[in-house]
């Protein structure tokens, strides 16, 4: 929004969608927020239709929905697999496909998928299924970039490391409980494992997303870029 884009904010939690839209509206031109379940294909179609009806077209997609829970590989269940893959893999693919369908006739568009360093083998991942889901986002990004390049559509991924969000802070609390230490101590340990000594703020990830969606990134596609304070290199 601060870069001048109209913003459509969607979330399974309608209150969060509205709050994001309100914040975007205060910072930029126009915004719209509503409930969408990205694991539901019909809901994705309605999301795109509503965005086009409101703003005329979709120029940028940021695929940012994701779920997880902290668990050892032997404690994960089929329910975990279905829940995580439904949002993190299925949702990302069909949001990309449906928005690309709208972009192709105009031969213009930028898609930014939010993956994770978990998809590149980061040992501190919340769980193995989450890592697999983010690995699928990285692979999808490469293939989509190859196949959509002929339509002048750029597709890239951002792979955040530790980022201060409600989800990550909940994981810190679980780790602290499991290891019998305070949340403050676990936070210190987490930060000490980051070469730069600090986790991401959401704005660190957002800044790269804005760049990848801008004309300055017109010749960047198929890339999965880390924002992690130096945790992994590839």
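^ structure tokens above, recovered residues below v
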């Amino acid at each position: 929004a601060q870069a001048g884009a109209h913003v459509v904010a969607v979330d399974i939690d309608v209150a969060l969608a509205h709050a994001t839209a309100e914040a975007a509206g205060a910072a930029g031109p126009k915004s719209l927020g509503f409930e969408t379940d990205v694991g539901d294909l019909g809901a994705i179609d309605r999301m795109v239709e509503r965005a086009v009806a409101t703003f005329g077209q979709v120029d940028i997609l940021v695929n940012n929905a994701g779920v997880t829970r902290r668990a050892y590989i032997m404690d994960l269940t089929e329910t975990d697999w279905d829940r995580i893959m439904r949002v993190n893999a299925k949702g990302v693919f069909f949001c990309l496909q449906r928005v690309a369908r709208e972009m192709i006739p105009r031969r213009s568009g930028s898609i930014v998928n939010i993956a994770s360093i978990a998809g590149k083998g980061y040992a501190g991942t919340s769980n193995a299924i989450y890592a697999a889901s983010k690995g699928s986002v990285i692979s999808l990004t490469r293939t989509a970039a190859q196949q959509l390049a002929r339509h002048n559509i750029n597709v890239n991924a951002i792979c955040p490391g530790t980022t201060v969000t409600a989800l990550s802070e909940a994981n810190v609390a679980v780790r602290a409980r499991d290891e019998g230490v305070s949340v403050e101590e676990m936070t210190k340990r987490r930060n000490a494992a980051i070469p730069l000594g600090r986790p991401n703020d959401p704005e660190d990830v957002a800044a790269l997303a804005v760049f990848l969606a801008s004309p300055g990134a017109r010749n960047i596609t198929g890339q999965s870029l880390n924002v992690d304070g130096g945790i992994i290199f590839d």
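The chain has one domain: 59-227.
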